[in-house]
Every structure is written in structure tokens, then in C-alpha cells.
Amino acid sequence: MRELIAFWCVRMAIVIIVAALGIIIWFLGKNGLSILSWEFLTEPPREGMTEGGIFPPLVGTLYLILGTIICALPLGVLAAIYLTEYTRQGKVIRVIRLGINNLAGVPSVVFGLFGLAFFVIYLGFGVSILSGSLTLTFMILPTIIRASEEALLAVPQTFREASLALGATRWQTIYKVVLPQAFPGILTGSILGIGRAAGETAPIIFTAATFYTPHLPRSIFDPVMALPFHLYVLATEGTHLEKTLPIQYGTAIVLLGLVLGINLAAIVWRARLRRKKRW
Amino acid sequence: MLRNNAWSKVRVTVSIIFLILLGFSPLGLGKGKTIAIRGSTTVLPIAQRLAERYHHLHPEVSISVSGGGSGVGIKALLDGMVDVANASRPMKTKEWKIAEKKGIKPHEQIIAKDGIAVVVHPTNPISELTMTQIKEIYAGRIDNWSHLGGPDHKIVVVSRESASGTYECFYKIVMKKEKVTPAAILQAANAGVLNTVAQTEGAIGYIGLGYISEKVKPLKINGCYPTPDAVRRGIYPISRPLFMYTRGEPKGAVADFINFVLSPEGQRIVQEEGFVPIRPTK
Amino acid sequence: MSARKYKERAIEGIFLSFALVSLVALFFIMLFLFQKGLPIFRVIGPLEFLFGKSWYPTYEPPEFGILPLIMGSLFITVGAILVAIPLGVTSAIYLAEIAHPWIREWVKPTIELLAGIPSVIYGFFGLIVLAPWIQDLFNLPTGLTALTASLLLGIMAAPTVISISEDALNSVPASYREASLALGATRWQTTIKVVLPAALSGISTACILGMARAIEETMAVLMVAGGATLIPTSFLQPVRPLTATIIAEMGEAIHGSPHFHALFAIGMVLFFITLGLNLLADFLTHRFKEAGSGTL
Prior knowledge:
By secondary structure, chain A is mostly helical. Chain A has helices at 2-32, 38-42, 55-86, 91-105, 108-122, 129-153, 157-165, 170-199, 202-205, 227-236, 245-276, and strands at residues 45-46, 51-52. In chain A, strand 1 and strand 2 (51-52) form a beta hairpin. With 296 residues, chain C is an all-alpha fold. Chain C has 13 helices and two strands, in the order αααββαααααααααα. In chain C, strand 1 (55-56) and strand 2 (63-64) form a beta hairpin. In chain C, helix 4 runs parallel beside helix 7 and helix 10 packs antiparallel against helix 13. Chain C is globular, with a radius of gyration of 23 Å. The two termini of chain C are 45 Å apart. Chains in contact: A-B, A-C, B-C. At the A-C interface, helix 1, helix 3, helix 4, helix 5 and helix 6 of A face helix 1, helix 2, helix 4, helix 5 and helix 6 of C.
């Protein structure tokens, strides 16, 4: 009897967790879906941000994601190749690993400070897409490295041995054999990291985001509006808090949809890959 | 499994993704006419509306508006990061000296006037306070409405982030540079103060004139309600001018923008946002 | 042949340099935090900074004591842990020991999604739903309190605790369970008396990383914690944690002013707190090898 109660308690915990996700999505969906329309997605804010849409912040966020992918993916994958294919032991690797683990633990607001001090002020990039993307790059680098490592390690050792035995060099083996096999895995893992970058606010507030700009950025040195920052300022700083409430819900649901969509795509794709690849 | 086309497939995928993303990317590095505006959060909603309208009239001008506070805006102006600095206080002597050192002659333009209203929860029977009473409340020395002839209810003090322009104005005019009690709930913006006061019986807060709504009750101070007219005539005690600073006499697009701000249309926007225009409106 | 070898060496060198980027980044982060943060100690002593009881950065003269902020972070983190650990560890037990495989297959991605929700959305939800609810429930002057932030953070930190704890539980060898069950223990007894102790260090790692997650959270606590710089005495008071202070004030601090440097110094404090927690978690993982590698 006692055991039964205990088991039910344990079940309750998981129900609470799943319910939390459900409630948040349901609540935002209930209040936000009605405002969604093609115009909402493709028009700039109007009338002191109380009307119109979220086109500039939406595009701004896409630019930031793009910039982050371009910088973070190659960096992360190449680092992971070194860690899995070239060395497995030794001091160098332990130090590098320590670096990656601790970089993963750095608070997002500290990344924001670093981006402000280094990219914005020291390198003089100003508050811009460039500064924001580079800041986000460092933030998600550990995620991408780990995901890539996992994917590389999943390629059976026998593949490498076969290639090397045929006289291929290590680089040829990596390039021709290991990477193509690992590539989908690398992508799915990395997408999860990108999803995180898309939703982050703290690192971009001082490095990339601006309160209002009605047009799209014309260069990578322009500041942009971004969805998470837009939601934050509307919810806490807007002049007409009540009037912008529908827009706040709309922004929240678009941001949530974007991030969960990215994550869900990666999760589903990963599940399919796992089912398909059984060496 | 190890067919040679594994890579080619990957390559095609990557190229496609890259091309799509590139199509999105802002590769143009050309700088057209730009106006970058930064500064006081009080001026922010006006500046945003003005920029919105100005962009509509002159779509070729690239315009962006950020907050940050008066000090940040002025610093950015002197560093050459922005073209217009919004400020809810005049430049300090220290800042004029920095400007002089850098060989910049900032040009000061008053664009509107702002009054700070002291507001309470609508159910609060109190309708008038003196400047001294407000100061005593914010210093934490009066902590119950019964001391002021109201109901026996604890006073919930709501104040602003200490770096905001509204706070600075309140701090100088009302507090006479005395500290606000640390028990005060600090809000980052006018809207936050408004909502907290509206939801909290016994709360007192202060907000820009433009933020007054029926959700809260503005108080008479020294016998005068915070109305635009009282602010314009200078009889409401807690008021201040709002500024836009430029580097030197405004030129080109910037001058055009400042002229727009002072035009009847610009001043009407000022009025619609709840501030007091300084020039005739349309 | 040797040209080929050189080429290989060169390629390896290139890869190595990319692998070092993380390390260099970490170093640069420290360097710039120090460069911008240390100048505050020309204005105020380090002890006065850490244990000063009042934070009035824009008064004249300014006061830069961050004890109220540290206490704010501490209150919220303790509260979050009290929510996240029971919830997270029991969920992990359920997933690893009890759940049907098909439930696991559905619940695990759900938790991953929960971890992926941007913190500003949690903050928005907290602001609009949780805060008014707490205010009504306890009849408070404001719903923006340490408790509100703790509840929100508890849910946010739970996925971290779950995923790492579950890895730890899964890495307990099946033979332990079989031995226990063979001796006549029930499934529950086996879980509590055998599996859980065996995975304890992994679960401690999970708890520590959950704590780090709570301390570093910024946007959600900024939006719901209230922001009073008083040293808190109760969970029903508004508080101002370290992270929220940086975000709330950095936009208005003038570059190069003492206030600016003080905010970077707060960043240093945060950096070292999380570094310490991560190193501790790392140590625990390596000390007792049974924990797996959590990636959340």
C-alpha cells in the first residue's frame, strides 16, 4: 500500500513537469493565436507600437540566428573533430575539455557583459548584428561541440580502421568517411543549440538589440530589433502596457513557436536518424 | 553505406541552406543617411512615435531608437555613437567639459515638457499631499496612511530604478537628494509603476504625466493637479523640460528630423503621448 | 611521403587551433570582466563591495554594497532548489526505473522542449499569470516576490536536474537491481535502498548544476522578482538578484563610470560562483564514475 502511494507521488512529479509545459503553451496559445495573421508577421509596429506587426524584430532574430550559425557551426565542428579524431588522452585534451565545460557554465548575462566590453567597445563593432551574433556564438559553442562529438563518436571505429587500412591518411578518413556519416547527427545536435540562441535575451540586450527601428538592417553593423527583446520591452517598459498586450501575446507565441519549432524539428529528425542507423 | 555520394548529398544540402540564408543576409555595407537616437526612457515613447512617422515621410533615411537613460544618450553622443541624444535633464557641467575637451559643441533643443504625477490606488481617500509629506513617505519616515488622515493601511512605496531620468527628477525636486527607503519596490519603467500602484491597495508611486490613466488616482500637490496646462504655466511643482541634443547645430537629415519634431505634426505626437508641447500643434 | 605527412600535421594543427577557441574565449571573458570590473576597487574595497549592505549606485556619494543582491540571489536559488530537486529527482526516478519505454519516449522530448522555452517567455508568463496569483493567494502588496521567482525558476531548473539524474540512474548496473530483487526486495525498496544510493554522486552533480542554472537565470527573475534592494527576510518580499541588477542597470550606466565598473564586478562575482559550482560538479562526476554526461 505504501509503495503504491510512493509510486503515485513519483508519477505526480512527472505530471507536474509535463503540465507546466502544457499550461504555458495553452495559455499563450489561447491568448495569442487570435492575433496571428500574415499582416502581423509582415508589418512593422505602428502607432507607438500599439498596432501593426512584428516584422523588424522577426527578421532581426533571423539575422542573429544566421550570423550565429555561420560563426558557430564551423568552429564547433572543427573543434569536435580534433577532440574525437586526433586525441583522446593527454593533458591538452583535459585542459580543452575543462575550458569547454566551464564555458558552458558561464551565465548568459556574463556573455552579454563580455560582448559589450569586447565586441561593442573594444573592437568597436558597436551595437550591431555582428556583435550580437559573435556573442551568441561563444554562448552556444559548447553545445555545438558536444553535439558534434557525440555524432562523431557514434560512427563505428571499424569504418575508420577500414579506411586507414586501405592507405588513406587520417584527414582523408575524416573527410571522406567519418564526416559524411556524422553530418546529420552534427546538424540535429547543433540545431538544438541554435534554438537556444534564438530565444536568448540577456546576451543581446547590450550587443545587438534596439528598441525601435522601422526598416530592416542595411549592414551587419546595424542594430536590430529582436523578438525576445521586443517582448521584454513591451511587457515591462512600453507606454501603453494595456494596449500592447495583444501584441505581447502575439510576440510571445511567435517566439515560442520559432524556438519550439526549431527544437522539435531537431528532436524528430534525431529520433528518425537513431531508428535508421543501427550499425 | 559508404557510397561516394554521401558527401555530395551533404554538400548539396549545405549549399542550399547556405544560399537560402545568404538570400536573407544584409550584405550591403553602404551607409545611407542615418539617424541614430538614444537616451532617456521618458523621451523614448515620443522619439519612437516621431521616428515611426518620420520614417513614413522619408523612407530613405535609416533611423533607429534606443533607450538607456539620459546619461547614456549624452555619453553616446559625445563618443560619436549616435546623432541625437534624448535627455530628461539638461547636460551636466561635467558633460559640457568632456564635450569641450573633444571639441564638440552640443546643441540643446527643448522638445517638450514633462510633469511627474504622484499617484495612489483609486480607492485611497487621500487626494492631496504636500511636497514635504511625499518626501517623508519616500524616505520611509511616514509608513502608514493613518498618519496622513487616511485609513490604517501600510504605505507601499513604489519607486523607479535609480538610473532613470524620472527618478533623477523626483530625487532632485521632491527628495532634495535624500535617499529613497530601500524597502521601496523598484520598477524599471513608468508602466511598471503604474501597474503596481493600480494593483496594490495602499501603494504610492510617481509616473510621467503621459502615463496617468483611470487605473490610478493622481494627487494634487500643493493644491495643484498635474495637468498639461499647469505644467505649461509652471505652477505644478514637479515638472521639467525634455531635450534632444545634437553634435553642433543639426545638419542634413538630423536637422530635418529636429525640425519635424518641432513642427505642428511632431508636437501633436508629443501631446498624444501625454507630454506638454512647447510649440503650437496641428 | 613526407609531404603527405606534413600536410597531415598541418591539418591537425588547424583542428587544434579551433579546439582551443573555447579555452581562449573563456580566457578572454575573464580578461575583459577583470579589465572592466577591477577598477571599482579603486573606489571601494573588495570586502566593502561584497558585504556592504546598501546598493545606491547613482547617489552622491554612491554606495556599492552588493550584499542585498547576493542575498536576493541566494533566496531565489534556495527556493528554486526546493522546487526543482524533489520534482526533478522523482521525475528522473520515474523515467529511469518505473516508466514504460513508450512513456519515456514521449516524456523525454517533452522535457527537452520545456528546457528550450526562452527565459523571457517564462518571465512573461510569470508576470501575467503567476504574480497576480501569488498576490491574491497571500494577499500581498505585490506579486513580484522571491517566492514567485523561485517557483518559476524551479520549473526552469527541473529539466537540468532530471536529465542528469536520469543519466546517473541509468548508469547503475542492472546487476545491482537484479541482485536486490533476487534477495526478495520489492521494486520500490530496490529503487530507494540500492539504485538511489549507487547513483547518489551523479544526482548530487545534477542538483549542483540545477543550482547553477538557477543562479545564472536572468530575464525571468528580472521580470518577476520585484527588484527591491533591501536584504530580504521573507520569501514574500520583492528581491533583487545579481543577474537582474546587471541587466536592469547596465543600459543606464555610463561607460567608464564607477557604476559601470561595479556592474562588471558583479559579473565577476557571478562568473566565479558558477565556475565554482561547475568545477564542483566536474569533480563529483570524475570522482565517482557512475554519472553519465548530461548535456542539458
